[in-house]
Amino acid sequence: MDRIGKYEVTAFSKARQDITLVSREGKRRLMIHALLEVDVTKARELIAALKAQQDISFTGWVVKCVGQATSEHKEVNSYRLGRKKIVSFDQVDIPVPIERKVGSEQRPLAYIIRKANEKTVAEITKEIRTVQHQPIDASTEVLGEDLTGFERWALTAPGWVKKLGVYLLRRRGVSKKKHFGTVGVTAIGMKGRFPGWVIGMGGPIATLVLVGGITKKAGVVDDAVQIREILHLTITVDHSIVDGGPLVRFASRLTELLESGYGIETR
User: Fold this and answer.
1) Which of 4, 138, 147, 261 shows its CA 20 to 30 Å from the CA of 110?
2) If you ran DSSP here, which 8-state letter would residue 11 be given?
3) pTM, to two decimals
4) Residue 66 and residue 82: Cα distance in Å, rounded?
């Protein structure tokens, strides 16, 4: 009796090694996770109504709302600076993964939306669309950025060099913002039917917002029960920087923006 059956062996690629390195960095931090259910019925209706006039993506709109909520609650837009300081930023740089096929492998390539809190939903959507069609090859790790010579070298360096680089950046908040951004948005639920939440590792960035699936549920609107579209959202923050109170205030403001359809310009 064959206990194995057919199987296939593939390489543990350089890209997978990089993802493992980043994930381990999140594992060592003191992460808090908040799982939210957000009514996005109004926003989805507004986006659908504007589809013929304007290209607005759901992910681009979520990025806009995250950028605005973050600009109002800078605790989640902060990093450690040395052993005894924290640095908080005005501008919100949001890294998002853009999935592209490289050879036979689907890879989440990094792209950072700089100053997301200062841009419109349409501008953010256009940025995402542009890098989705950017020419790439097996050496591509970061989309859209004009990389310095040092960054290009670091991306192609051996694993131990990258590990050392991540270690050296742990408490260098200004450099971390430059290279990694601050508040990440990952739209897992936009890849297919996914009726639930995702718990993220956090990685090296300050805060992570994971967009899960959308399901239809009964909700109460003006004392009447209606079918609503509910988005599953997870917020992950570093407890060494953010306490429960700031996390709740940030989550409350983000929920308010999402449920009101903030930033979607109707004409």
Assistant:
1) 261
2) -
3) 0.84
4) 27
Q: DSSP string covering 97-112, please?
A: EEEEEETTEEEEEEEE
Tokens 């930033």 belong to 263
Helices (H), 133-190: 149-156, 159-169, 173-180
Structure tokens of 216?
Answer: 């239809």
- List the one residue out of 122, 120, 114 whose CA is nearest residue 92: 114
Q: Quick: pLDDT tens for 102-143.
A: 766 677 778 899 999 999 999 999 999 888 877 766 666 666
CA 231 to chain centre: 15
Residue type, 104: S
- Give the residues across from 250 on adjacent strands: none
- Residue type at position 95: P
Residue that is written with structure tokens 């991306």 in the block: 155
Q: What is the dihedral of CA 44, 49, 53, 58, to 10 degrees?
A: 10
**Residue carrying structure tokens 């700031």:** 246
Q: Are 113 and 124 in contact (CB under 8 A)?
A: yes
Cβ-count burial 62-85 (b if 16+ within 10 Å, e if not): bbbbbbbbbbebebbbbbbbeeee
Residue 13: φ, ψ to 5°: -65, 165
What does the alpha-carbon distance between residue 2 and residue 249 come to, in Å, rounded to a whole number? Answer: 58
pLDDT of residue 123: 93
